[in-house]
Amino acid sequence: MDLSTEYLGLKLRSPLVPSAAQPLSEKLDNLKRMEDSGAGAVVLHSIFEEQLRQESLELHKHLTNYTDSYAEAASFFPEPEEFQLGPDAYLEFIRKAKASLGIPVIGSLNAATMGGWTDFAFKIQQAGADALELNIYSIPTDPDLTSEAIENSYTDIVRAVKNTVKIPVAVKISPFFTNMSRMARMLDQAGADALVLFNRFYQPDIDLETMEVDPDILLSTPQALRLPMRWIAILYGRIRADLAATSGIHRPEDVLKMMMVGARVAMLCSVLLYHGIEHLRVILDKTEAWMEEHEYESIKQMQGSLSQTHIENPSDFERANYIRALHSYRPRGGVN
Ligand SMILES: Cc1cc2nc3c(=O)[nH]c(=O)nc-3n(C[C@H](O)[C@H](O)[C@H](O)COP(=O)(O)O)c2cc1C
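Above are the sequence and the flavin mononucleotide SMILES. Below is the predicted complex in structure-token form.
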């Protein structure tokens, strides 16, 4: 069975890729275990520009103007000791990962200024990463900020990074755009080599005992897969960039469905945090068994087979399906 796939111009031996998350990738040993369990590549957890600044603040205390203007914002962010890995350590980690793994290593960056995006993208390339994922995470709350300005800020980042590095660049975004198709095309035209759909925005809870915001992260369930699955189906064949699926991929069936709608890779996070890194092998083996049973010969053969590439107007198709879904629903108990 040929489980290989191509992603970001890299040939991967399998489509399973652990996605960016510090608890997964912070130890070299974990990365080795991912490789041993059949991962096609690994994405390292994101390095944040605030981490870069913390370190440079310590190095350049004489830049008082900078520290003054930064003081207020800094108070929202973790203290330096809460960042388990500073920028130099992150780059060193990439070097070590590259030296000890045979599978591609993808760095992940979340910056806040244009200089931050380009400077660190360059350093990640220098450290030997095979590719770079841009984790663009911003929640606009200013009502004067237009959708167009937000969209342009994304493509500006992609263009600037693409002009700075030679390694392939993936862009991880959230689904919260007015017109995802247009945003995807804009990112594609800006040079993104892949779109990673979708980032899950951290949504805090409230602790009623302390009356404080509770920064607890909820892991996903397979329900979360429907949103990226739909958008990958719609976008497949309509943009040049590869499509990577993330969110809610827990079971072999989830991987298969993502491949069929057109994903090049299926990224795993919550499922590995629930069941351990070695669970990747279980998912891979069962994916392969399903393919054998259904007489598939390769992953490539199924990629895009259930996409909407031949549907002229996906909006009409989605509307028809919406109506059909609402009308065909039958209560499973509790309602007469
Ligand atoms: C604890 C934790 C840490 C994460 N850290 C990052 C990160 O550093 N960078 C990033 O792009 N995504 C990060 N994510 C998002 C995951 O990579 C993934 O895209 C998301 O959780 C959806 O996949 P899942 O449903 O398999 O969890 C994190 C998720 C979790 C649960």
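Residues 223 and 241 are 26 Å apart (CA to CA).
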